[in-house]
Design goal:
The chain is mostly beta strands. The protein contains 6 helices and 21 strands.
Length: 376
């Protein structure tokens, strides 16, 4: 009988110790965005597999070991939060939304989409890949950067309209130029004859470009109609970011010169060669090579040196100011480009100014402006 009583007492003592080793904790989980309860939040004792989820009212109640130190709260779309227990039996938690980049985002005609969700043929060229290229126009920087996009110049004149082809020529009698859209505004389509007379693309400062997206297939016609039949090039310019005031200045200098000049005949050499040809045919000499037959009319002009520059200078300067805060972003830039061609009449000079600003007036209303001024 004594043994039975001792065994019963031992069981009661053990049960009391087990009960004393657990603590019941309860609380409510809400969102920092709207202060509403968050159901389905995972509540676990950190370092263990013990846990539960909150109910539809965001509340939870669970028993945890008395020596537990931290509760971990996690849910998709919110930042995981670890909370020290510190002897408390009621712990309310406010979760902050986690805004992060899930996948690469590209610009399309009507906004932006995740790249994996776009079914059309689209290629992207980032502005960082173009920043190190010394070219006065974006079309020169685009050459060779995207598969299926051909960029060529027809005459070599600086600032001329480039020949742009996306996946070859799609029409014989109609225009073959793609549509170019800058920050949602169509600026260039070429003409119906296939050769435009003015280069609207030359007004774009390459240093202001954030990225370029090329729509290669017919899906662009759903947005822009028949103008997009030859493809679309979407250009997005830079805007303020980073939360701080930034000043950026970049420039480059260069010199161009002919690779090789020909060794040409002088006037007397030309007469000598002509006389040799006439002599071989049994004819009398054409003229004396001392210039006596053409007094005052013999000129030894090196037309290569008269037409070509031996040192064609190039320079480019860009200064930008940008920044942002919780409600506004801004980006201002000044650019100057001067490029002399190898031939003396050939050259280009461009002054550019751009101002992009956005102001968030309400949660549902944002006002923005894009202003660009160019003088060629």
């Amino acid at each position: 009988m004594k043994k039975i009583l001792m065994l019963f007492s031992l069981l009661l003592l053990t049960g009391s110790l087990v009960m004393a080793q657990t603590v019941q904790i309860s609380g409510t989980v809400t969102s920092s965005e709207d202060n509403l309860p968050v159901p389905g939040v995972s509540v676990t004792v950190k370092g263990t597999t013990l846990g539960m989820i909150t109910g539809i009212d965001g509340k939870y109640i669970m028993s945890v070991p008395a020596n537990s130190q931290i509760l971990s709260f996690s849910f998709i779309g919110f930042r995981t939060q670890d909370v020290a227990i510190e002897g408390r039996t009621k712990i309310d938690v406010v979760l902050e939304q986690d805004v992060f980049k899930v996948d690469e985002v590209i610009v399309v005609g009507y906004g932006s989409q995740k790249k994996r969700e776009v079914t059309g043929a689209i290629s992207t060229v980032k502005g960082d890949a173009l920043a190190s290229l010394a070219s006065p126009s974006f079309d020169g920087q685009l050459a060779g950067r995207s598969a299926g996009v051909q960029v060529t110049t027809q005459t070599g004149v600086l600032g001329e309209v480039p020949r742009l082809r996306i996946r070859g020529v799609g029409s014989i009698s109609s225009g073959t130029y793609p549509l170019v859209v800058v920050d949602g505004v169509p600026i260039f389509t070429g003409d119906q004859g296939g050769a435009a007379s003015t280069n609207a693309l030359g007004d774009i400062n390459p240093s202001d470009i954030e990225s370029m997206e090329i729509l290669k297939d017919g899906s662009g016609t759903a947005i822009y109609g028949s103008r997009a039949a030859n493809g679309v090039i979407l250009i997005t310019t830079k805007r303020g970011s980073g939360g701080k005031f930034h000043v950026n200045y970049n420039n480059y200098f260069g010199v161009a010169q002919p690779v090789q000049l020909f060794d040409l005949l002088k006037a007397n050499d030309f007469v000598t060669i002509s006389n040799e040809k006439r002599s071989n045919r049994g004819q009398a000499n054409w003229a004396s090579n001392d210039g006596a037959a053409f007094p005052g009319r013999v000129f030894d002009t090196d037309w290569q040196k008269a037409v070509l520059r031996t040192n064609a200078k190039q320079q480019d300067h860009n200064l930008s100011f940008s920044g942002s805060n919780e409600k506004s972003t801004y980006y201002f830039s000044l650019g100057y480009t001067k490029q002399d061609g190898v031939t003396i009449p050939n050259g280009m000079e461009r002054f550019s100014l751009r101002a992009n600003a956005d102001q968030k007036v309400k949660k549902w209303l944002t006002i923005g402006s894009n202003v660009a001024v160019t003088k060629n």
